């Protein structure tokens, strides 16, 4: 199998591959030239505190103008993880037109789709995108498909039953569905008001969509495409922010990072009997958020520091002791996904 990532994306040798992408940091707008320091996950609080103390964020020319830094094309690549050598190899590069941050990404029919996002413009403002890009791993070619009905950033893109679903986004509750045969986006039932306008996670399981996260960490919503309705599922006992959520067979796995205890906790939701179960815990030297992808009987949890392996489907479900590397040059958040690659060509 192969594992891949975006921004830096990653893939592995075999019938399938897991990939992911990374985003560069953001920096203060041109009116804050004296604070040209890049903001990262490690220093953002320090920079924000300094900006507040010096009154920078109260300046009319600066407030609301936090923009993405220019993306280095060298760091907008897709990598493939070779499971035999445990090494990452370059598969392709992202087109320049794909926004630097906030895009949704998933695979459908062994094509990679990247939708929405947010890009900086020459006037220092940021603008959400409605463009959708498609990558064919057999030809190595990128193309554009029909744009979203509305621009979205920080959306979740999920494939289910031969369709793509663009779910929410920053300050958006709307949901739309893409039919690749007709090359058309159509609206479906929006997320319930008061749910997850930002920071939500989504996955598909058994022909249904599940959405969790956001500001109400413990909530889980289920979308039934036959009735075009959302409904509440039983609450999860965790009060931590979910770092990602994936599905395998009839189970939804939710991964929560516990910074206080420097660990990741796994919770499992059985979609058939509709019950949550507490799961495994794994210590993290650096409790950074990560994103997940399912490949065979393993869930790969990827960030810039390492790649964890969570085994599922057997009697001894849990994290494997072996920690795999991440791409040596990776920056920002990595988004893993799985594709089939033909290594014979």
TrEMBL record:
PANTHER family: BTB_2 DOMAIN-CONTAINING PROTEIN, KELCH REPEAT AND BTB DOMAIN-CONTAINING PROTEIN 11
Pfam family, one: Kelch_1
Name of protein: Kelch repeat and BTB domain containing 11
Protein keywords: Kelch repeat, Repeat
SMART domains recorded: Kelch
UniProt key word Lipid biosynthesis: no
Gene: DPH2
Domain of life, per lineage: Eukaryota
């Amino acid at each position: 199998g192969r594992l891949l990532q975006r921004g830096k994306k990653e893939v592995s040798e075999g019938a399938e591959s897991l990939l992911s992408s990374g985003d560069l940091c953001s920096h203060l707008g041109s009116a804050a030239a004296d604070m040209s320091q890049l903001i990262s996950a490690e220093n953002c609080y320090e920079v924000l505190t300094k900006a507040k103390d010096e009154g920078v964020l109260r300046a009319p020319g600066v407030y609301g103008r936090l923009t993405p830094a220019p993306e280095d094309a060298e760091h907008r690549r897709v990598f493939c993880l070779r499971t035999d050598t445990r090494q990452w190899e370059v598969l392709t590069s992202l087109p320049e037109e794909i926004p630097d941050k906030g895009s949704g990404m998933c695979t459908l029919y062994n094509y990679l789709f990247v939708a929405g996002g947010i890009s900086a413009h020459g006037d220092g403002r940021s603008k959400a995108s409605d463009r959708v890009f498609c990558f064919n791993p057999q030809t190595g070619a990128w193309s554009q498909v029909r744009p979203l009905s509305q621009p979205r950033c920080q959306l979740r893109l999920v494939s289910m039953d031969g369709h793509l679903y663009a779910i929410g986004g920053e300050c958006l509750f709307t949901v739309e569905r893409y039919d690749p045969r007709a090359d058309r986006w159509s609206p479906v039932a929006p997320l319930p008001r008061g749910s997850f306008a930002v920071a939500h996670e989504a996955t598909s399981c058994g022909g249904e969509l599940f959405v969790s996260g956001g500001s109400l960490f413990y909530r889980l919503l289920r979308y039934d495409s036959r009735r075009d309705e959302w409904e509440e599922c039983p609450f999860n006992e965790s009060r931590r922010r979910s770092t990602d959520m994936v599905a395998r067979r009839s189970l939804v796995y939710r991964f929560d990072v516990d910074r206080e205890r420097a660990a990741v906790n796994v919770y499992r939701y059985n979609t058939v009997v509709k019950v949550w179960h507490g799961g495994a815990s794994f210590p993290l030297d650096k409790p950074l958020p990560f994103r997940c992808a399912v490949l065979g009987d393993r869930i790969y949890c990827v960030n810039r520091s390492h790649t964890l392996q969570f085994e599922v489907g057997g009697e001894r479900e849990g994290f494997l002791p072996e920690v795999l590397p991440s791409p040596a040059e990776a920056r920002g958040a990595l988004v893993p996904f799985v594709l089939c690659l033909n290594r014979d060509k």
